[in-house]
Design goal:
Blueprint (H helix, E strand, L loop, with lengths): L13 H13 L1 H4 L1 H9 L3 H25 L6 H9 L1 H31 L8 H21 L1 H26 L15 H12 L5 H7 L7 H30 L2 H5 L4 H47 L17 H17 L3 H33 L14 H18 L3 H22 L9 H6 L5 E7 L3 H17 L5 E11 L9 H23 L2 E9 L2 H12 L3 E5 L15 H7 L3 E6 L8 E4 L6 H12 L7 E6 L9 H16 L7 E6 L3 H9 L4 E5 L13 H9 L3 E6 L2
Parallel strand pairs: 1-2, 1-4, 2-3, 4-5, 6-7, 6-9, 7-8, 9-10
Antiparallel strand pairs: 5-10
Helix pairs in contact: 1-8, 1-10, 1-11, 1-13, 3-9, 4-9, 4-11, 4-15, 4-16, 5-6, 5-15, 6-7, 6-13, 6-14, 6-15, 6-17, 7-8, 7-13, 7-14, 8-11, 8-13, 10-11, 10-13, 13-14, 15-16, 15-17, 19-20, 19-23, 21-22, 23-24, 25-26
Length: 727
């Protein structure tokens, strides 16, 4: 993929996904937050972690379905943006990006804190911030160089820190003093819920799995397994760590410590245990920050892809295939947040809670998005992991309710900061993104419910030079048939993938093509007053892909671009078009669009099954430029004194128009009498802008037949040519 592209390589397996997710959660949540949690909930802080883990599990379940349905970079932001539209996408995108940077700064301050506290000559906040910035630079370099390298770094660090934490718990349970656990909840249920909001930052790891979904191999299996397993295992580990910590030393002492786990470990593991814990805490904070930087850069990268921010961010490095610009921007802002950490005591809890607020809001909207996707079942959404009933809709309903309860118990200053970020997202959308985003969301469709029966015209588009013209013809056809159903235009782009590879992120291609389709088709749909949907599909063969779409959409009509060549060997219209002409069960128009202006069409009509369709299509095409089409019939004279040829021709036109359901004022009639029918057709039709000719519905052996008159029109008439076959 070139630097101008937006695709990231799939290089992450199950182990990498687990370490990105679980590693982030095992980090600062264990080594930095226990003191803060104990201070606000006492020994019941273990319950706060359990509640936070349950809220996270609900979000992980909804995200697992969404991520396997659309495994693409962006995580919660992408799903909300796709389901609810650009406004909510901007709110969640900015919330997630800032939240992940808050989290990363929080982790790096904790890293510096654990390193400085045990070493007397490194005392002071300046050292803490300096070490945090140094660690940040290291992580930015790792992320810039490559996702695979970043995840390999995670694998090593997470393995070491997990082993140390397991030893901490396994030995610590034998040193718990039951008296330290009384009273268990000194600040009541309110303190427990408020603490849940503080520690929720500990569970952001599963979101990171969704955010890098575009880089995970075999996403249908690995994403849900790693998400759910990481949340469950880490929640159990957190509860045990808090029970050990508050059981070994009184929670009041724990709350006063900036390095709480180290203070616990020294009581039963001695100096060697402290060294091990300090080492684990340092690498945990670094690995957590690494995951957060990785995820935050993918969020702003995806926002650039969708037009919420400048597409300057939606560029991958030409050599490393990483979103290098997004990584640099994320690192710059995170560095500023770390510098704010010069006031360490005040900033630690604030950064944690601000990140938690942003993600609780995001997850509430993720749950709503799942409901929207279920109700609308959009094209391209085919999750390999789906919540069964009655888990659905219980999970999204409960998830929204619990998220809002936790948010309501947060400190006022945190609510103000979080609300400010939400307000910034709204203002940003109104001022900058509204005219740039191309995703209109599915919310309106979900609220409307099952739409009226449509008259659906499918138009495959690939050539930028003819896209707009084909879309206008398709929109005109759909709109002209509104008496048969609600006019609906489906614009389709098929990406051929001859040999799919697990390293190919075809979802990124699909999203890029869908965005391009929307940009080109939206104005046409507005101009022609039709409902527009877009589909971007991936198939081994383009023709077969188009046929699949026609079948799935139950299309009434398909309008295909065609290069105007007629072959007499293996393919008549081309390898892509021939299968569609042979097997499509709907009306077909093959259009050689030589000029975007449709102008005044002429339909060549003669007795036959396709004639009414040809006549009706000419009338539909004429609405593009508000013209009146001509129905043309050419009659050979039966003799020198044949004076009835004109009348015979008019009778043929009248019969065809009646069969097509046309009123006399919808068309004009032209009858040409000539011995050389082919030459007469060419001369007569050359005066019109678009020529509509019937295509035989018969298939003779392996060939699709076309007559001599059709061949002469295609080769000799300079106008647009449409070959039409009825269903």
């Amino acid at each position: 993929m070139s630097a101008e592209g937006g695709e990231l390589e799939r290089t992450l397996g199950f182990l990498e996904a687990m370490t990105l997710g679980g590693g982030t959660m095992i980090g600062a949540g264990i080594f930095i937050l226990p003191g803060i949690a104990a201070q606000t909930a006492g020994p019941a802080s273990s319950i706060a972690y359990a509640i936070a883990g349950f809220v996270a599990l609900l979000a992980a379940l909804s995200l697992s379905e969404l991520a396997t349905g659309m495994p693409i970079a962006g995580g919660s932001y992408h799903y909300v943006n796709r389901a609810l539209g650009g406004l909510f996408g901007a709110v969640v995108g900015w919330g997630m990006w800032t939240g992940l940077m808050f989290a990363s700064a929080f982790y790096m301050i904790g890293f510096g804190q654990y390193l400085v506290e045990p070493i007397p000559f490194l005392d002071g906040r300046v050292f803490i911030v300096g070490l945090g910035l140094l660690g940040l630079v290291l992580l930015l370099g790792v992320n810039y160089y490559g996702t695979e390298e970043s995840s390999a770094f995670q694998n090593v660090t997470i393995g070491v820190e997990t082993a140390i934490v397991l030893v901490f718990v396994a030995v610590g349970v034998f040193f718990i003093d039951p008296e330290n656990l009384e009273p268990f909840a000194p600040f009541g249920p309110g303190g427990v819920v408020a603490t849940t909001g503080i520690v929720f930052i500990s569970f952001l790891g599963f979101e990171i799995i969704a955010t890098v979904a575009g880089e995970i191999k075999n996403p249908g299996r690995i994403i849900p397994l790693s998400m759910i397993l990481s949340v469950v295992l880490v929640t159990i580990l957190y509860v045990l760590v808090m029970l050990v910590s508050t059981g070994v030393i009184p929670f009041e002492s724990l709350g006063d410590s900036p390095i709480p786990v180290s203070d616990v470990a020294v009581t039963y593991l001695g100096p060697a245990g402290v060294v091990a814990i300090v080492f684990a805490a340092i690498i945990a904070a670094i690995s957590s920050s690494n995951s957060s930087i990785l995820a935050a850069s993918r969020v702003i990268y995806a926002m650039g892809r969708d037009g919420v921010v400048t597409d300057w961010f939606n560029v991958s490095h030409p050599r490393f295939y990483t979103p290098h610009r997004a990584i640099a921007a994320t690192g710059g802002v995170t560095a500023l947040l770390i510098l704010v950490g010069l006031e360490v005591e005040a900033i630690i809890a604030l950064l944690a809670e601000a990140a938690s607020f942003s993600f609780l809001v995001a997850y509430s909207l993720v749950h709503v998005s799942l409901v929207v996707f279920r109700r609308t079942d959009p094209d391209g959404y085919d999750p390999s992991f789906a919540l069964p009933r009655p888990v659905y809709p219980a999970v999204p309903i409960l998830g929204v309710g619990l998220s809002l309860v936790v948010v309501s118990q947060m400190a006022t200053v945190v609510v103000v900061i979080g609300t400010g970020i939400v307000a910034f997202g709204v203002v940003w959308y109104a001022v900058y993104a509204r005219g740039r985003v191309v995703s209109e969301g599915l919310l309106a469709e979900a609220i409307r419910g099952t739409p009226a029966e449509p008259y659906r015209v499918v138009v495959p588009v690939a050539n930028p030079e003819t896209q707009r013209g084909l879309l206008r013809l398709a929109a005109a056809s759909a709109h002209a048939n509104e008496d048969r159903g609600t006019p609906e235009l489906v614009a389709v782009n098929v990406t051929p993938v001859a040999h799919p590879s697990p390293l190919q992120n075809v979802e990124a291609d699909r999203a890029d093509h869908q965005r391009d389709l929307l940009e080109n088709a939206r104005d046409v749909a507005t101009e022609m007053d039709v409902t527009l949907r877009t589909r971007a599909v991936v198939a081994r063969d383009v023709g077969e892909g188009i046929l699949d779409v026609l079948e799935e959409e139950a299309a009434d009509e398909v309008i295909l671009g065609w290069d105007g060549t007629l072959g007499r060997d293996d393919h008549v219209f081309g390898a892509t078009v021939d299968p569609v002409v042979r097997h499509a069960h709907c009306d077909i128009s093959l259009v050689d669009l030589r000029d975007e202006a449709v102008g005044t069409p002429v339909a060549l009509v003669a007795p036959g099954p396709n004639a009414p369709v040809v006549a009706h299509q000419a009338v539909e095409f004429a609405t593009v430029d508000e013209a009146v089409p001509t129905l043309l019939n050419v009659q050979p004279p039966r003799g020198a004194g044949d004076s009835d040829a004109e009348n015979r021709g008019r009778a043929v036109v009248a019969d065809v128009a009646e069969a097509a359901g046309l009123d006399p004022d919808e068309y004009e009639v032209q009858v040409v009498v000539a011995d050389d029918v082919g030459q007469a057709v060419v001369e007569a039709t050359s005066r019109y802008d678009t020529v509509c000719v019937g295509l035989s519905g018969r298939v003779e052996g392996p060939r699709i037949p076309f007559g001599d008159v059709t061949e002469r029109v295609v080769q000799d008439v300079p106008s647009n040519v449409a070959l039409i076959r009825g269903s």
